[in-house]
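W.,

You were right to be curious about this one. When I first looked at the sequence I had no strong expectations either way, so I just let the prediction run and decided to look at it fresh. Below is the sequence, 505 residues in total, followed by the output.
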Amino acid sequence: MAQADPASGIRTLSKLSGIRDMLPTHLLILLLLLGTDVENPWVSKAVPIIEAGRADNASVEQRKKAMDAAWRADAWQAAAELAAAAVQSGESPLRGKAARALWRAGKFGEAEQLIDATDLAGADAPMLSSAITAALARGRTQDGLRLADRLEALENVSASDLMTVVGARFMRNRLDGLPRLIRKVETMANPKNGYPEIHIPEYLEGLAAYFESIGPAPVNRLDTPGTAPIEVARLVNLPMVEATINGHGPFRFILDTGGSIMVSIDSEVAEDIGLKTIVTGSVRGVSGKDSAGQALIDEFQIGSIRLSRVMSRVFEVRKAAAGSCDGIIGTGIFADARMKADLVALRLHVTPSSADPGVGDAMELRLIGDAKMIVPIRLSGRPATALLDSGADVAAISPATLAAVFPGKEFASMAAPMAGVGTGNQPTLSFAKGVDIEIGGRKYENFSGLGLDVLDHTLSPMLGMHIDALIGMPVFRDMKSFTVDFPRAKLWVDWAEKPESARKP
């Protein structure tokens, strides 16, 4: 294992500085995604409905239909415009759809204000669904689960709304009865209904059979808190730890804050140690889609940290990670605990959740989807959202966001020289002028104008929130440590005193 070097610390974890210095010859993003190959029929037919709802003399019913059409077409920008008009006019029948649209557009603060100002006693399904998502993202677990029970009990609830209930129970380890609910959603879901139902079949693929097989006991259980050394994966400059699987190993795992609530294991490793695949399905990443198996690890040990009943995904991880590791630890497996990554001493700490503050400056955090870490930033002076992803060696911007920052500009683009999970898709990079990013009190000037189309086409629809920027190791290397309390949705960052890549405001 690598020895800690207090003099260099985090600087050993990445040699990249985004495109400020040069474009790397090969990019690695281990982000795990969901998507679909099904065409959304609402993309074309929503246009006239949206235009009718935008008219100055549009009725409330026309505005309601327009917001529904924009949602189904995943025309999130148009939906956000309609939502803003609905909020300004104070039209009560549209509040739920407005909250949903604002959240999808990445305006989570505005969505939460609308939700918090609404009496949820008689709320409709879109408002309840939005309130559940917002409660869980803010660490308000009991509120989210209570609202999920109410949403399930509504008459004529849609498949997409029931998916919110499935997600709430899945992410909070309420697995009793989950297979039945999953099968109900699978039966109800119809791609003809557009977004997000076109994503449901891939999202739920094999999950009902998986949970039926493993039983209702909680998964990803932290049995023994502890610590472990962090190593540097030299080929890809990402944080890595060693771990054993059911007593076998140790094996090398990338520590990935963008990597879901599962442990991903290379197929050869799984075969060598006899890890049984329970169901087969698929996995999707920035490079496309690949076949995968779902398994359950009885005991997973990282240093002195011990977990049991750990959900795992089996696929060709070594190929996806350019041979740099044997697996990927999605930090969402610590969903019931607090995790601190000390990037100077090179040490991982996993401890029980606590009301005590962590080390460093508190940062606003939302935990979205499969425990993705979303933070508010400012991007060239504009409020924006960012995904913190320690499994990426770049900082990248949404092309839609670049278009908004540089209106009327055309950007050069190219097929990305990229490694990552999946096959069959080659992401597109676009190149704009550098943007200024403010995150957690740090300002990076002319930081990255690198556009990555996956953020718009795959990541944001999957999370149900527009992500303006993917923040990888070029920013993590300026941290002495970061601490995440997952149950409380709290984040602290202890910044290096004189970061090389940060510029003073």
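Here's what jumped out at me. The chain has three domains: 42-214, 221-352, 361-496. And, maybe more interesting for your project: Confidence is low (pLDDT under 50) at residues 1-26, 499-505.

Coffee later to discuss?

I.
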